[in-house]
Each structure stands twice: as structure tokens, then as C-alpha cells.
Amino acid sequence: MDADLHDRLDELQRDPYPLYARARSAEGLTYVPELDSWLVARDADVREVLRRPEDFSSANALRPDVMPAPAALAVLGGGFGGRPVVVTADGALHQELRAPIVRGLSPARVGAVVPYAAERAAALVDDFVKNGEGGRVELMSAYAGRLPGEVIGRLVGFDPDDVPALVHGGRRAEQLLFRPMAEAEQIAAAEDVVATAHLLDAFVRARHADPREDLGTELIASVAGPDAAAELTLDQRHQVVAHLQNLLIAGHLTTTALIGTTVLHLLRDRRQWELLCAEPERIPAAIEEAARYDTALQGFRRVTTRPVTLAGTELPAGTPVFLAFAGANRDASRHPRPDDFDIARPSGSRHLSFGLGTHTCPGSQLAREQLRVTLELLTSRLPGLRLAEGQRITMRPTLIHRSPERLELLW
Predict the structure, then answer these.
(1) How many structural domains are present in the chain?
(2) How far apart are the C-alpha atoms of 120 and 104, rounded to whole Å?
(3) Signed CA dihedral, 355, 360, 363, 365: sign only
(4) Would the pTM of this model clear 0.90, i.e. be above it?
(5) d(C-alpha 232, C-alpha 146), whole Å
(6) 62 lies in which domain range?
(7) What 8-state DSSP symbol labels residue 277?
(8) Are strands 30-32 and 408-410 parallel, antiparallel or unpaired?
(9) What are residue 228's DSSP bridge partners?
(10) pLDDT at 226
């Protein structure tokens, strides 16, 4: 990617909403060179694509924004994984890969982990309140970047001591696939990804030998098949590791982003923060509004499987499109005053932050529960919480997990 294109991609990713607005007002679809895709940003069009998975394949959902250098790809070749995952699969394979994740994230299992999430959330707040100098905390590193990893780690069954390394590996995979980096940095990131994959493989082998009531065991059993007692083949281990790599990124980075953007927008409008503190029963509505207003997962790629026409634009087979959930969430035809953040917004118009149809996010309830725990805790314990004055809040340059890079708070 040349420097000029990189700069334009960076600018687009830090604030994509003006582009979405132009695309919604244009006739047909808008081609975006920075994404090498046709942009789908109207609510009706996004919903149509999501309802037609046979015409719009998910095979390119995780196509890198920036292709790693050959040296970095060579390093990745020494790891585990590289097998199909749920977000890039279609049809029967997608249902096969999705089924154990849906079982592992069932309402009963999510409900069972909520007390642990509340306990860990309280401990993290205790820690930064006790140790914060002058009543100050950087929320992303002290809280938002930690709680979701611990919670998904508990659900999967990881040793808590391994969770920080696994979270780090997920972040490095995201950087490698979605951020331009010098070749030496790419190689270092690839080495971290491979180290994480080997850590996951060790977990898979240990859990296969000693099954538990956890999501990790569920995923292993789904791959091992009826002969669960037999030793896993190398290919089966690769498949489970790929499952876990995808689940880790989806299970903690998205929720981390959602916590950061939710707190940011609540504190930017003091009236809404104070309303939430006074009326905590509004927390579920605040969660939905935050997810709609500044969507953590801005969108996914799709590719046409045959010639199709969408919004009057003819797309040959093999055409890449970028499905902007965040663009649909700011569509005035479904959400009046879409650019206003309003936790008192009347309910009824469902947003697309967690997808729709066959690819609806199976972890959406887990994310909502962690955000609910977070807002209940912060509004009750730190009602005087506010943004530190003078800070320049910069959004992370990514469309995959949009959030503040740093969020300095005072109380």
C-alpha cells in the first residue's frame, strides 16, 4: 500500500461516518478505493445483503486491510490455525462451525458467568480507585482492556495466568491484519501470533485429555466427533486452535471497544451521564443506544457469488463489498436524528451492531451483560466520573474494533 493510500485509509478509519453519510445519499453504491470494495451503508441494503448469504459470501470477511509481507506470512506458517472459522464460512459449514459456539454461549452459560464478571469488574474498579493517582485512571488499559478477556477466558476454561498472553496475541493478530507496519514489526507481530497459537494448542491437548464443562471442551468435542477418546489428529488440533483464535478476538476485543465508546459518549454529555446515575433502569437502553451510535464492529466484507444488482448497482460475481453496520445504524430512515446520542431514544428500531440472520453474533448477550455490569458499577460507585480536561481523544484506526485509544477519566 502506497503512503498516500495508507494516509487516506487511516483518516477514513478514524472517522468513517462522513463517508457513510455520503454513501447513503448517493445513487446506488459507492466504490471506496481505500477498502477496495463497494460500500453498502443504507439500512435496507445492509439488511438485504445479510438476508442473502447465498449471494453474498462471507469468505472474505476477514480479508486483511493490509496484506502482511512475505516474511511475516512465512512466520505465520509455523503456527497453528489457518482453518475455516465461523465468520468466514457459508452454508452447511457455517452452521457446523457455529453450533458449538452457540451451545457454549447459551443463555444458561452466560448467566452462570455473570457473577464472575461482576466480581472481576468490582475488583478492577477497586484496584484503580485505590491506586489511581489523584483520582485518575486510563480506562482502556485499567479496565476495558482487561475485563472481557478474563470473562471469555473463564467461559472457555483457560488458566487465568494465561489470559494476558492470549489477549495480547489477539491484539497482535488484529494489528498484523488491519494496520500498516514496517516489515520488522510485522515479523514481530507474527511471532507473537504463533506463540499464542502454540499456547492454545497446549490448552487443546490438555483439555482433550481432561474434559470440563466449558466452551473449550465443547469446541474440542465438536471437532473430535464420535470417537472423542481418540487422540486428536494434527488437523483437528489446527481446527480447534483456529476456532479459539477467532473466538478470542471476537470475545474480548469487540467488548473492550464497546465499553470504551459507551463510557466516552456518556461522559461527553453530562446530562445523559447524570440521568443514567439517577435512573439506572435506563442502563439497558443506554447499552443499545451506545452500540447503535458508535458501532464497535463497523462492518464486515462480503463477496458476490454470482452477478447481482444491489441498490441499482450491477455487481459481477466475485465483487467485494463492505457491509457497514455502522452506516446502517446512522440511517435516518430507521433511526430518527441518527447522529444524536440519546439514551432516552424510543425503543423499537433495532440496530445492526450485532448482525442479522445466520451471522448474528452469538456472543451479543455476553457483551451486553458485561456492559450492564460496568455501567451499574461505575454509576453507583463513581457518579462524579468525568473526562479529564485537555486530553485529545483519538479513535483507534480500525473498522473492526472501533474504540478510543486512551480514555483518561477523573472522579
Answers:
(1) 1
(2) 21
(3) positive
(4) yes
(5) 32
(6) 3-410
(7) H
(8) unpaired
(9) none
(10) 76
